């Protein structure tokens, strides 16, 4: 039976869906207040003539895009808005959160990850960060895949790259193009849930000349995506397939692509797991130190009951920051 395991981290909620001892899905929430589920009032500050899309400013000052505006909506009007997609940070630009008008909705904060999961039908079990559950089921490997965007499979590998237009999955490896594509299908289907990939996803298979081979891969992909909610195209002559599904939040690849912020959260989790006595010494590059909020450091000291010290390591990759106990 499937079960969500949940950790309440500092600066990050995280959950993994376990079935038959393996991670089949994962969710990470960084606690942004303007995210899917938030209902807030907002003032319409821009509405191009003749269009039903505009820009609104929420009561906290955040600007969001609003789709399907009422026909009579005017600039300066206050609207009741529900956030349907969090803001997205992409290479070279930021995308504002998206909202829709819901005049009768009650004002409410966005649900936490734990609240969202417990509202579903799958059991949720909160576990201690210092416990073995996440590591035993492959959390570290999943984080490495999110950081690198690389997933190996028998005979090849996937490279996952977020772009402003879509998330691209490139298939590379050895052997015939058709055999390589078929071998990649199970890993692609698994990656969609394991890395929380949504929205528009493009899969770049090797070019396959024979139509019957392309059709066989379409059938295999369809079977592998049983239960996945979305639409997909048939493979074209260049080996390209597009998937489109609902997008509410950044994927794990997108989140961990923000190296400094991800590194700070990885360091906090590691620091909570240090068992040896002594001062917690955090060794990190400037990008991680800069991303570390004072309240996170204070919470780490409170949770562990320890004094915190820092050691600068300019040449260290953000995700390689580490914590250790020192006695001097």
List keywords for this structure.
328 residues, alpha+beta, OB fold (Dihydrolipoamide Acetyltransferase, E2P), 9 helices
Assembly level: single chain
| Proportion of beta-strand residues | 25-35%
- The coarse silhouette is globular
Residue runs with pLDDT of under 50 for 5 or more positions: none
Strand order of the largest sheet: 12-13-14-15-17-16
Report helical residue fraction: 25-40%
Give a short account of the largest sheet. 6 strands, mixed
End-to-end separation in angstroms reads: 48 Å
Count helical runs.
Answer: 9
Number of domains: 4
H and E order: EEEEEEEEEEHEHHEEEHEHEEHHEHHEE
**Radius of gyration computed on alpha carbons:** 22 Å
**Beta strands, count:** 20
Q: Structural class of the helix and strand makeup?
A: alpha+beta
- Average of pLDDT: 95
